[in-house]
Design goal:
3-stranded antiparallel beta sheet; Chloramphenicol Acetyltransferase; catalytic activity; 314 residues; 11 helices; phosphopantetheine binding; PP-bd_ACP; 2 domains; globular; 7 strands; 39% helix; 4-stranded mixed beta sheet; phosphopantetheine
């Protein structure tokens, strides 16, 4: 079972029981995928750190066998139907940041998929409409009620796939022109566009707000899009995001809350990094990516240190 799960997540045909997950293409997001698949097969919810501590099939299998009785998964119950639900903690943070600096695209998560061959734009739109209907998060908008950010799941949210034919062959320009701010009070917080570059060459542009997505969920949506486009059947979803959010709100976290309130009784310290310029009073979200070449000896030493500390280099 574990060998098949590793192979499926890593997209490789043959996996040795002694292959280190992180040395054959794995990373933290894929590790979460492994955790989810193990839970689906066994009903056991392993902590994420277990894969870092036991990164081979042989080691992970021993963990499952030795701790099967103690590592019982916590089933997330289906939340009762309500007109709105409290936003989760990550959603609250993103909502507040969005309200502070409106008109920004800092929390947009754009992606791009190159498609070789003829594209049926109407079919693409139908598939994304099916995904919006399948995932409640894709038809969720946000408002403030009694001073608290809440998520409201719309019964219906229509998505339109834009289409353009162009001779611009600069992917970065195409993506920058596509990305624009979202209105969190209107679903779906998702945009899709097909750009035709040639008769047999297209680009699918995809943008979603971070308040309803992360790296793992984007990969899942793209994977499901490909499956539905090719008329494959998807398994029915057992849990929606609002179920998880309600479950988290109903957990007894009083001990953790007391601890952290005592840690920051005065105020949370400001991370004072050695900048080469003055820190602005309000975050501007302006910046850029700077690339530099690292000597092989330094890179190898970093990887060796990461393995010793059981951490991942991002």
């Amino acid at each position: 079972m574990l060998t098949n799960i590793f192979g499926e997540v890593l997209n490789i045909e043959r996996v040795s029981i002694y292959d280190n997950f992180f040395e054959v293409g794995g990373h933290s997001l894929k590790a979460i995928n492994v955790i989810n698949k193990i839970e689906g097969e066994t009903g056991i919810r392993l902590p994420l750190k277990v894969i870092f501590e036991s990164p081979t099939v042989a080691q992970l299998g021993k963990v499952l066998n030795d701790q099967e009785s103690s590592l019982n998964g916590q089933n997330i119950p289906t939340a009762e139907s309500k007109s709105y639900y409290l936003a989760s903690s990550p959603q609250k943070r993103l909502y507040v940041l969005n309200e502070m600096v409106q008109g920004q695209t800092a929390y947009n998560m754009p992606s791009m998929l190159e498609i070789n061959g003829v594209v049926d734009v109407a079919r693409v739109e139908d598939v994304f409409q099916s995904l919006v209907e399948r995932h409640e998060a894709l038809r969720t908008h946000f408002e403030t009620i009694d001073g608290e950010p809440v998520q409201i799941i719309d019964e219906q949210a229509n998505i339109t796939v834009d289409y353009e034919a162009t001779d611009i062959d600069d992917y970065e320009t195409l993506l920058n022109d596509f990305v624009r701010p979202f209105n969190l009070r209107q679903s779906p917080l998702l945009r899709v566009k097909i750009v035709k570059l040639a008769e047999q060459r297209h680009i699918l542009l995809f943008d979603i707000h971070h308040i309803i997505s992360d790296g793992f969920s984007i990969n899942l949506i793209i994977k499901e899009f490909i499956a539905l486009y090719h008329e494959r059947t998807l398994d029915k979803l057992k849990v929606q995001y609002k179920d998880y959010s309600e479950w988290m709100h109903n957990r007894d976290l009083s001990g953790q809350r007391t601890f952290w309130l005592s840690q920051f009784e005065d105020e949370a310290p400001v991370l004072d990094l050695p900048y080469d310029h003055s820190r602005p009073k309000q975050q501007s979200f302006t910046g850029k990516t700077v690339s530099a070449e690292m000597p092989k000896e330094t890179r190898d030493a970093l990887h060796e240190l990461a393995q010793k500390l059981i951490v991942q280099i991002i």
